[in-house]
């Protein structure tokens, strides 16, 4: 039997936006590929960087769906179904909106795929595929290792994706991750993670955890074991990691080069509205936390959520100025998205502020990086334009030059200079 795995593109994009540049390995599909046993055959297509050959013979298609790719995912599913091929949808969006997703597939997976995969394939082979498979959350990737062969020959950034844990214990009002995992956080078996690194000879790693530092005690044990492997790594982490000096030192000693941090806002009122608890404690415009990051030499990828109820065009501009002044390696100015099931979505729906009939992810007129709701202090079009301008300003040549010369971080050594230069070049190319 041949199984085709699909990573959809984001669908409709704003003019000039190039999502293919700087694509990274879709780890979730490599995990699924690792579940497929011989003599079954597996192949993967990533629509961000290649065309999907719809007429290529296959027996079963599995598509991973997030909210931004939902509209395109349903179109892809319809193409295969029209050819008489069964389609299974999985991923966070399918789990958050199972009734919607099930209308566009022969079967869907709600939750993590690993616990139900074998039964699902058995049912398919026996022509008894169920409409919905509910997978309980357990240890992530238990007994499963990614099949990275599916990435061969594809033009991804030279960084290996890996996970130490899944979920996040916090309850931010805009976050679909907390809804999907019900505010839980679970770590993989440490031995499995270390084995995967050695088995696949991984040397430059991005941990794709939703919040790698959510369980600090277990992470410390892992980092001590990671030190001898001499890897370089980065992760997504919450701001509260700066309060643990032992953890910060272990991160540095084990090869951490930087962290993606959700700053979200420089306004305390916004942070409270977001319920961004790790950012609120002793808030002083992040002065203490930023100095700690710099003392350890960590590169900082800063993420901001713009368009909230306290934002206007002036505060967005000040946020960009803050990011440039602090010489962040990268900064992302994301428009606040009302993801289905979140508190923000429910609030905007009750206030009648949702655009695109309340279902932006499945509307033909929605374009990636556009506002999908009516902001309080500006128009939706003004917010969309402000997001484009924020990225252009931050990745302007003058900003890139100014931010490079930070002796503690971006200009600390040749490796950091190379990382900084390459990433800024890629993102400037995609956003300007």
Describe it for me?
This protein folds into 2 domains: 2-134, Cobalamin-binding domain (Rossmann fold); 158-431, tm_1862 like domain (pyruvate-formate lyase- activating enzyme, Alpha-Beta Horseshoe), CATH 3.80.30. The chain is built from 17 helices and 14 strands. The chain has helices at 27-35, 70-81, 92-96, 98-102, 117-125, 176-180, 190-199, 216-226, 245-253, 268-274, 277-280, 287-295, 313-325, 343-350, 380-394, 397-404, 414-431; strands at 2-7, 41-46, 60-64, 86-90, 107-110, 132-134, 160-162, 165-167, 185-187, 204-207, 232-237, 256-264, 299-306, 330-335. It is globular. The termini are far apart.
Relevant CATH superfamily of the largest domain: tm_1862 like domain
Summed up, the domain count is: 2
Instruction: Indicate the low-confidence ranges by residue numbers.
Output: none
Q: Give the oligomer, counting copies of the same chain as homo and different chains as hetero.
A: single chain
Number of DSSP E strands: 14
> How much β-strand is present in the residues?
15-25%
Instruction: Kindly report the average pLDDT value.
Output: 93
Give the CA-CA distance, first to last residue: 44 Å
Number of helices: 17
Principal-axes shape call: globular
CATH class of the largest domain reads Alpha Beta
Question: Which sheet architecture does the biggest sheet show?
Answer: 6 strands, parallel
Q: Strands of the biggest beta sheet: in what spatial order?
A: 2-1-3-4-5-6
CATH topology tier name of the largest domain: pyruvate-formate lyase- activating enzyme
Structural class: alpha/beta
Radius of gyration: 21 Å
Named CATH architecture of the largest domain? Alpha-Beta Horseshoe
Helical proportion, percent range: 25-40%
């Amino acid at each position: 039997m041949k199984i085709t795995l699909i990573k959809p593109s984001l669908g409709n994009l704003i003019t000039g936006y190039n999502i293919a540049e700087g694509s990274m390995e879709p780890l979730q599909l490599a995990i699924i590929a690792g579940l497929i046993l011989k003599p079954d055959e597996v192949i993967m297509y990533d629509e961000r960087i290649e065309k999907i050959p719809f007429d290529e013979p296959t027996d079963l298609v599995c598509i991973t769906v997030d909210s931004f790719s939902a509209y395109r995912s349903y179109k892809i599913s319809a193409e295969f179904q029209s050819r008489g091929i069964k389609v299974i949808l999985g991923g966070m969006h399918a789990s958050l909106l199972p009734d919607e997703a099930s209308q566009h597939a022969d079967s869907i997976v709600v939750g993590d795929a690993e616990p139900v995969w074998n039964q699902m394939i058995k049912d398919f082979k026996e022509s008894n595929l169920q409409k919905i498979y509910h997978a309980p959350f357990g240890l992530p990737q238990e007994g499963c290792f990614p099949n990275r062969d599916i990435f061969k020959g594809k033009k991804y950034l030279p960084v290996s994706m890996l996970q130490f844990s899944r979920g996040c214990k916090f309850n931010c009002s805009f976050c679909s991750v907390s809804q999907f995992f019900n505010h839980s956080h679970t770590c993989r078996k440490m031995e499995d993670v270390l084995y995967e690194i050695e088995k696949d000879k991984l040397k430059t790693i991005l941990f794709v955890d939703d919040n790698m530092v959510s369980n600090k005690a277990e992470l410390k044990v892992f980092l001590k074991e990671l030190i001898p492997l001499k890897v370089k790594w980065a992760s997504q982490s919450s701001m509260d990691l700066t309060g643990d000096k032992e953890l910060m030192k272990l991160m540095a000693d084990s090869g951490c080069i930087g962290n993606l941090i959700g700053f979200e806002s420089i306004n305390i009122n916004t942070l409270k509205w977001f319920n961004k608890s790790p950012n609120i404690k002793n808030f002083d415009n992040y002065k203490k936390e930023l100095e700690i990051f710099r003392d350890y030499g960590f590169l900082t990828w800063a993420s901001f959520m713009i368009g909230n109820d306290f934002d206007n065009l002036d505060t967005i501009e000040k946020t960009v100025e803050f990011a440039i002044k602090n010489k962040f390696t990268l900064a992302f100015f994301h428009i606040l998205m009302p993801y289905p099931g979140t508190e923000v979505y429910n609030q905007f729906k009750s206030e009648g502020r949702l655009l695109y009939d309340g279902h932006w992810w499945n509307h033909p007129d929605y374009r990636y990086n556009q506002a999908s709701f009516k902001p309080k202090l500006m128009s939706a079009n003004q917010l969309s334009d402000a997001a484009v301008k924020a990225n252009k300003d931050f990745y302007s040549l003058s900003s890139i030059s100014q931010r490079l010369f930070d002796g503690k971080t971006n200009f600390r050594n040749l490796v950091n200079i190379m990382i900084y230069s390459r990433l800024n070049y890629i993102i400037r190319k995609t956003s300007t």
